[in-house]
Write a structure and sequence with these properties.
The complex is a heterodimer.
Chain A lengths: L2 E5 L2 E3 L5 E8 L8 E6 L5 E7 L6 E3 L7 E6 L4 E6 L8 E9 L7 E5 L3 E5 L2
Parallel strand pairs in A: 2-11
Antiparallel strand pairs in A: 1-3, 3-8, 4-5, 4-9, 5-6, 7-8, 9-10, 9-11
Chain B lengths: L3 E4 L2 E4 L5 E7 L7 E6 L6 E5 L3 E2 L7 E6 L2 E6 L9 E6 L6 E2 L3 E5 L1
Parallel strand pairs in B: 2-11
Antiparallel strand pairs in B: 1-3, 3-8, 4-5, 4-9, 5-6, 7-8, 9-10, 9-11
């Protein structure tokens, strides 16, 4: 059974940092691109970042570029998101998700983890 | 960035009735569209990809159609567990973008 479990969320003051983790199981983690997607309270979904299976490629939403860094450790079946210079508007539930693609330009996502809440407030 | 617009924002449906949800893309996304279901306090779950292909384990009452800019998710006979928020997502253009969601509530 495929599973993704996020951790590391919490309350942080504006300008602070936080590192999220996502532990994967039930599939060959090293074969897949992975993404972080967030959802502000009561709002819709926003893709944040992806990383290729071997970490060769990464990309970020403009809203987080230069402040967030995605990484992975295939030996530990783990995905990470280092979030620096956090702002109030980064407050959201952060989901990790496996990227899927069948002859398409870009990816859809399945499965998703249960999410971890990041609150940026003074 | 392609803007994805879902309608209606809220759909009130009685159990056993059909629900039809719409998703419109700001420009053509071919058939590169997915649908997700999200229940309160839960992560989104993939329902449909490629505009019309059901994901593994998704009941046949869920069907997707459309291409280009106009897409539809149909739930043929609503069950109690189907009351949720539904999101569309395009993956034809960068960056991947989601619609704002349609809430399906009990009438």
């Amino acid at each position: 059974q495929m599973q993704l479990v996020e951790s590391g969320g919490g309350l942080v003051t504006p300008g602070g940092s936080l590192r999220l983790s996502c532990a994967a199981s039930g599939f060959t983690f090293s074969d897949y691109y992975m993404s972080w997607i967030r959802q502000a309270p009561g709002k819709g979904l926003e893709w944040v970042s992806y990383i290729s299976s071997s970490s060769s490629y990464t990309n970020y939403a403009d809203s987080v570029k230069g402040r967030f860094t995605i990484s992975r450790d295939n030996a530990k079946n783990s995905l990470y998101l280092q979030m620096d210079s956090l702002r109030a508007e980064d407050t959201a539930v952060y989901y990790c998700a496996r990227d899927l693609n069948i002859a398409a330009p870009y990816n859809w996502f399945d499965p998703w983890g249960q999410g971890t809440l990041v609150t940026v407030s003074s | 960035e392609i803007v994805m617009t879902q309608s209606p924002a809220t759909l009130s449906v009685s159990p056993g009735e059909r629900a039809t949800l719409s998703c419109r893309a700001g420009q053509s996304v071919s058939s590169n569209l997915a649908w997700y279901q999200q229940k309160p306090g839960q992560a989104p779950r993939l329902l449909i990809y490629g505009a019309s292909t059901r994901a593994t384990g998704i009941p046949a009452r869920f069907s997707g159609s459309g291409s280009g800019t106009e897409f539809t998710l149909t739930i043929s006979s609503l069950q109690s567990e189907d009351f949720a928020v539904y999101y569309c997502q395009q993956y034809n253009n960068w960056p991947p973008a989601f619609g704002q969601g349609t809430k399906v509530e009990i009438k």
